Amino acid sequence: MRIRREQALLLAVVVVGVWLALPDADRSRPVPPLSVTQKAYEAAPVPGVELFEGKGAGARPADLFLEPSESQPLPPAILPFPPLGALPVVALPMAPGQHGDAYWQLRVPGDIPAEPIPLTPAGPGAETRPASGAAGSAAGAGAPAAANAAALGGDSGASAQDAARARYERLYDRLTLNDGLAYWGEVLNKNKHRLALQRTFQEPIEFRWISEETGAQIGKVQSFAPDKVARVELAKTLRNQIERTKLELKEDVASLPQRAEFLEQLLREARTETWVYAEALAQAQLYARLRGDSEDGLRWVARVLREQGDIAKELALYQGLSGASAESGFRHAGLGSVKARLGLVRDAEADLRKAVALEPANPRVAMALVAFLLEQERAGEAIEPLDAAVRNRGMLAGPAEQYELGTLAVSVHLALGRVDAARQALSRLETDADFQGQRDLLRACIAYAERKVDDAAAAYRDAAGTTALGGALGVGACQILKGQWSEARSMFETVRDLVPALRHRAHAGLALLYERTGHIAEAITEAEAAVACNPRDAYALYLLGRLRRLSGQFDSAVEALGRALQVRDRMLDAYAEMAMAELQLATQQPDTAADHLVRATRYVDRLVELQEPHGQVPLFLDLQGRIRFAAGDLRGARQAFARAGDKSTFAQVGIALVDYAQDRQQEARGQLEAIARRLKRGEAMREFCEEIVRRIDDHADQEQIRDPFERDALGNVWQRESTNGPLWAELVRGAASVRGTFTQANKPVVLRRSPSPQGRNFVSAEVMVRVEGETQERFFGLRLQEASARAGRGGSDFDARLGWREGKPYLLIQDGDPTLAQTEEDKKRFDPVELALEGVDPKKPQILAFEVLPREQGGGNLLALRAYWNGKLVHERPVQRITRNSRTILHIDLMVEAPAQGAVDASFDDYRLVRRKEKS
Q1: Whose CA, among 53, 675, 699, 911, lies 20 to 30 Å from 784?
Q2: What is the pTM of this model?
């Protein structure tokens, strides 16, 4: 009979107590002082260390007792956290507007509807796409004003007759005779543009009638005598208007202001009618000649070439400057602008800064540097040159340059999130009819940045009616925020089809729209299209990463978010998405969970650090605490949850779960009950807290038996339920090993843990198994067997086996008497379960486990049996024989079975049984 651990401890306490009770006359004597003598240090040789692999006998910890303790308290259970709130999403950024550092100002709730919201057409004509190339004045780049008005559902309100007259004026020339008769058709004189400016005529007018309805020619060409013609009015086409203006302008220095206005008009029209660029270039070159090829004149030529996109000619223009112009601010600013568009960022910045150094008081070179820094999303560095340009804005000529500076100022301040400063910059701009659309757009962008959605939508509509520069795009962005889904979709599709420069933002807007309405697959498609249009758009990359995360594509989400952070390394919401994706990867991929949690911790810490100056978001602190808890940093988790404080119920629950993980179960239980009492009945968080309290109580009612086999003999706790002749298990290197040859058929080696629990008390059993060398076992693994009447006859009413069979994973669950099965479906329940396990190596240790849990359906005392292989759930099945009322004994066996003369070499290690405590 061996002495158990508890008996030895009791004996030691009794001996110490008796010794203290004995009288001792010497105890009162003073203790002599301690004297220390010094000896010379003698170096001793370092003992040799035997290196070996595996668990050798010398590596085992000393154990004074041969048998493990009967039962031990369970460590705290692994409890789930409540679901984290949905991360916010960044609304569609506008230009001008916030850059990546200030995108946090555009956050909106990121909840996604459980069921996709159907998208219907916005109304009659909503799906109509305005035709590109319509004529009209536009003060910006992109789709024409008429197209924008059509997209917004505008109506001129004119009568049908007036509308017809306006259409004829756009299509046909009009000839009015002295007798009052007027005809629609076509004037054929080569100098017809000069004729249209005359009041009296010296030559016959050649005219051809055209049908107003069909556009077909009517009759032959007729010649009208000059004395019979009162007026010639040419069709109001863009080409006729340009030719007429050219004739009206004189080629002298006095006409330069009018020629500059004409150039502005030509550049506006050229954005929709590209053939106009040739006329604009000719007028710019004429302007430069009249100005003596001075910087003022060459600036017009350079501007036309830049807007036309002819980089080669623009570069040649700057490189061809000589004399005093060779080292001018104009030349270096122009070279810097061209190099920036060619991607030569470092060289471009060097030229631009040299231009500012050469002419520090020149607002134009300062504006070029500001535009470059804005393009590089370095708005913070643009403040100094912007202030210099504003101080010297009196040197700028005309409203065009003033509005260019004003737009840059608003853009810089909005990029940095400085809305008040942007509003002040807009107030400095004087109202000008030609730039009213641009002013409306800036006003809309400021209202959008302030989250004044109605004001922004109205201003964007005004801008869309007069200019194409983002007006319709802004309307769509506001419609998303207002939940006008179908209208927003129609608007974004219009911008996508008509405005190539904004196509990537239109795709991003559609992606955001589809996400907000629950159409995640369509959203991913649009986000991928946005990235294809602009691979370095940080917002599009962020949105793509977020959408992939929401769809469960965590690896590709991390890849897209990583690219977003390469472009914009201070984009807070990209860090939030990255941290969440890494946390979800850690849950999905247990083998690499540690690496994912390390990265998730870094990302979430960076997120919290960057968010600090703007006021912490409780959800981000919740995420930080959750990640640190998963990484095992309970102290860091508590600190994060404590910072969220009373603002987050999730954080309060998190603190309770940290307390529980640190074995302060009563404190955790009390906190969860207090949280539940504060919440209303039916609230999800209250139900969660109540469920966790039940789990804590249920876990406290359980105990475990562990056997690492770290001793010299198996002891009496493992019974010889079955042996094969002399073959039995022995402890080798800290594992229960069955090694030898089976001499008898149908006689498995079975190690049965004693005492076995009642079925109602069983919770789980786990063991590590290993196959050594060449073996021939039929089955090797873990068995659960009910002690029923049939067990003695070679059967059992409940028999579950998990392990290796003939070198393959094997699972068998026999719940009931198979001889009573009548139908084919009933008989299949007793067949082995096919396990789809990939990459399982029989030569490596495998962890096998059975567990019972309450059934999700049916409830009550009914249970479901789960089988795990290396921690992975491989099968789950409701069982009938094992319930919470089962009083029969359930044996937990370690089993090896082989044919006669079959060689076996297998071992069991790290056995663990969890059971409910016996109730009196």
Answers
A1: 699
A2: 0.72
